[in-house]
């Protein structure tokens, strides 16, 4: 049980109203080897801070505050203990951990359990769409949710972890995340031409001057496309080929009919106050970059089939990426924060092209991502490390912006990995910290309700949750595990001395304060993406000699050490295991079990004797662009 060092009141709306400001840390804690920071609003430059071991009460680190932030990135203890930050004359933080892949430990399962809980029906085929706001497959979200895409990528990023959890579906022999993917695939296939009634929604879909759609069934092809790609990487043991071929067939037949081959603009007509009118891009209908993802998935599928036509999908993916390179305008709000929960898809889709097919990505792909990174560096130049819209308007003035920080971290992780930009990666971790309490409200963005605690639906180690929630709102998310509920509005930020709020308080049409916001499945999708892309840059595979030297060549019959560093350390009190996949002379062999080497290391190893008749040995972990690989030439 943690000791509570501070108590945040539920009525805080501005730190300027407080006499003393708490020390705001990531309440759960920090990943070893990654950026670590806290915020202390009002603290003077040069103020001393200390990090104290909460178990021994010993001083373990000291530093000074600059720009109301304290950094302790280089503090990387190998310990199960908790720590706290003390700032002279200000106060003390809540306790927190520092551990190997801590975020992944406490958040990976909740990341997909949310989507288990919000399925609109137990039955994917006979789902009653009119009872689901927006028309399923997740409550309060239509087919534009793209859940299946990010569920597949989450599994691909760390398969040995998700293979462990098999308790919530079917006969308990198939990983839960795989079962969830297959559920969404069946839903998509069953409703890929659905034009029946749905519940009320804010607007309609289609091109101006043409018949309007109430249900965005076109997007279901995108959800099927990723399943078709994943079939060849990891779904084959679980998805019958006959069913897979039906999914593939409907994608090929309807792809051009549904305009999935191109970037779709002005598709959504919204009647909602925040984005009324035809939208060039929107969080509903078609996100900017969505066509890059889906065409790449179909390419990855088709290249494995004898009668496949991968080149046409590659061409369409290249055209869609070229559109982003040419037209993506960081200063156009309709390409950025205005599209809220869909904004993360644009940089992630462009980055994904470089992850899976770097040799085929259009000219200028990396340069465009580099320009986006520069823009992010400029827009996060504040002590919250929060991406602002302008000097006078930071967050959205009219509505929730849950698609901001929770999803932005994933985009920063993906782009930082490709550009080797450690500073951008640090900013990605700052977005995670924002979710866990380093924000103007000083609370995790999820309400810590008894209902969620009773079903194991909350993050371990978080003391202060979001002050309020709408448990019976459109999505009925009160008893859904891992729900994000709210995010600070524009008026809640302490800004520069010369900045003004511009009367944003009167424009807040959701409610009177930051707490009157509401969770949504599309917001959680962006958070799921952050959990997925966080592993890029922290997971790796090596082939070592028995004395620990990394090898590039070896001898036939030689015993080598296979080393995996991955987010698999879920239980600090037991030795855990993982799996890597081997290929000899380019042909896959059986998987190899690797075993944890020490407390809080995240390193797993196994010995392997290279077969006598070998020319090469390849080791891989992960799939679909997330694979980490190592190879030795055998002589």
Automatic annotation (TrEMBL):
Domain Cellulase Ig-like, first and last residues per copy: 22-71
Pfam families for this protein: CelD_N (PF02927)
SUPFAM superfamilies: E set domains
Top-level taxon in the UniProt lineage: Bacteria
Transmembrane segments: none
InterPro entries per record: Cellulase_Ig-like (IPR004197), Ig-like_fold (IPR013783), Ig_E-set (IPR014756)
Protein name in UniProt: Cellulase Ig-like domain-containing protein
Species the sequence originates in: Runella aurantiaca
């Amino acid at each position: 049980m943690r000791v509570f060092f501070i108590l945040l009141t539920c009525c805080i709306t501005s730190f300027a109203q407080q006499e003393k400001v708490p020390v705001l840390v990531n309440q759960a804690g920090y990943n070893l080897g990654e950026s670590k920071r806290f915020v202390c609003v009002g603290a003077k430059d040069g103020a001393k801070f200390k990090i104290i071991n909460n178990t021994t009460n010993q001083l373990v680190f000291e530093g000074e505050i600059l720009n109301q932030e304290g950094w302790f990135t280089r503090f990387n203890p190998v310990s199960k203990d908790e720590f706290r930050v003390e700032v002279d004359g200000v106060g003390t933080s809540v306790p927190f951990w520092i551990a190997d892949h801590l975020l992944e430990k406490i958040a990976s399962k909740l990341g997909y359990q949310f989507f288990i809980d919000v399925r609109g029906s137990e039955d994917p085929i006979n789902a009653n769409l009119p009872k689901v706001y927006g028309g399923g497959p997740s409550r309060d979200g239509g087919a534009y949710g793209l859940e299946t895409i990010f569920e597949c990528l989450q599994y691909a990023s760390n398969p040995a972890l998700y293979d462990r959890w098999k308790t919530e579906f079917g006969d308990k022999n198939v990983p839960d995340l795989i079962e969830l993917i297959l559920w969404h695939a069946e839903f998509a296939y069953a409703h890929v031409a659905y034009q029946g009634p749905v519940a009320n929604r804010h607007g309609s879909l289609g091109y101006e001057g043409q018949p309007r759609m109430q249900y965005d069934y076109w997007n279901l092809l995108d959800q099927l496309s990723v399943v078709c790609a994943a079939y060849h990487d990891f779904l084959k043991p679980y998805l019958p080929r006959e069913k897979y071929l039906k999914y593939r067939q409907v994608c090929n037949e309807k792809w051009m009919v549904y305009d999935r081959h191109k970037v779709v603009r002005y598709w959504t007509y919204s009647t909602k106050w925040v984005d009324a009118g035809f939208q060039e891009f929107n969080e509903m209908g078609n996100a900017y970059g969505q066509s890059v993802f889906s065409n790449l998935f179909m390419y990855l599928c088709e290249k494995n089939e004898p009668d496949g036509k991968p080149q046409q999908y590659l061409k369409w993916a290249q055209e869609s990426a070229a559109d982003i390179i040419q037209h993506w305008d960081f200063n156009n709000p309709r390409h950025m924060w205005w599209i809220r929960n869909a904004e993360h898809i644009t940089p992630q889709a462009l980055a994904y092209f470089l992850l899976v097919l770097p040799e085929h990505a259009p000219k200028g792909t990396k340069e465009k991502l580099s320009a986006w990174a520069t823009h992010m560096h400029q827009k996060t130049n504040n002590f919250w490390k929060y991406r602002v819209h302008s000097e006078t308007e930071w967050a959205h003035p009219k509505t929730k912006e849950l698609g901001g920080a929770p999803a932005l971290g994933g985009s920063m992780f993906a782009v930082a990995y490709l550009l080797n930009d450690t500073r951008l990666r640090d900013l990605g971790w700052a977005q995670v910290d924002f979710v866990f309490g380093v924000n103007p409200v000083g609370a995790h963005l999820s309400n810590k309700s008894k209902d969620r605690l009773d079903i194991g639906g909350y993050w371990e180690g978080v003391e202060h949750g979001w002050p309020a929630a709408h448990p019976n709102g459109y999505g009925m998310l009160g008893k859904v595990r891992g729900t994000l509920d709210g995010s600070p509005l524009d008026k809640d930020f302490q800004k520069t001395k010369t900045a003004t709020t511009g009367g944003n308080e009167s424009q807040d049409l959701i409610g009177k304060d930051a707490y009157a916001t509401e969770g949504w499945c599309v917001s959680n999708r962006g958070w799921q993406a952050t959990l997925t892309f966080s592993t890029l840059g922290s997971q790796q595979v090596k082939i070592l000699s028995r004395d620990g030297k990394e090898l590039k060549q070896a001898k036939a019959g030689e015993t080598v050490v296979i080393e995996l560093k991955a987010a698999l350390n879920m239980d600090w009190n037991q030795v855990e295991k993982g799996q890597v996949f081997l290929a000899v002379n380019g042909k896959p062999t059986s998987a190899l079990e690797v075993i944890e080497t020490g407390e809080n290391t995240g390193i797993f190893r196994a010995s392997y004797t290279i077969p006598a008749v070998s020319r090469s040995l390849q080791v891989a972990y992960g799939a679909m662009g997330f694979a980490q690989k190592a190879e030795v030439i055998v002589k």
